[in-house]
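Chain A, query sequence.
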Amino acid sequence: MRGRKPKPTAQRRLDGNAGKRAFNANEPQLPLPDSVFDTPPPELQNNPVAQAEWLYQAPKLRKARQISAADRSALLALCIEWSRYLAAIEGIERRGMIVQAPSGYPIPNPYLSIATRALQSCIKLWPELGLTPSSRSRVSMVNEGAEDQFSEFDEPPAAIN
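Chain A, predicted structure.
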């Protein structure tokens, strides 16, 4: 998207809405997710850091109605990537930014690229889950009574002879 990221609706309300633009009246009101978010999923059983991130994020997202059962895999990926990032940062802190290669030459610590890729993944997942202020302000819901302009795509096309 072009231009400056919009301020979150809550922040605009606090600031007084100087631009006098309308607030997002169609913000989603997701149903509270079922118990699928109460405990970390079995995929995280061998990763205590990812489990801790799940237990930190899931209740907040659930309370804010920012998540549904369809978002489970995105939250799972976020928790795994965040644990990978923290493990890589620990490796960098332990060995330093520059390490010695087997040939004896100094090289960048391999954990740097792991940390960078994991953080890039998190940066892409945070807005998808509404975990950044600007991403929450961009979300809009369609009214239930409104006509669906894409309903023609719900049915598979007829067979072509």
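The CA atoms of residues 92 and 112 lie 7 Å apart. The chain is about 45% helix and 5% strand.
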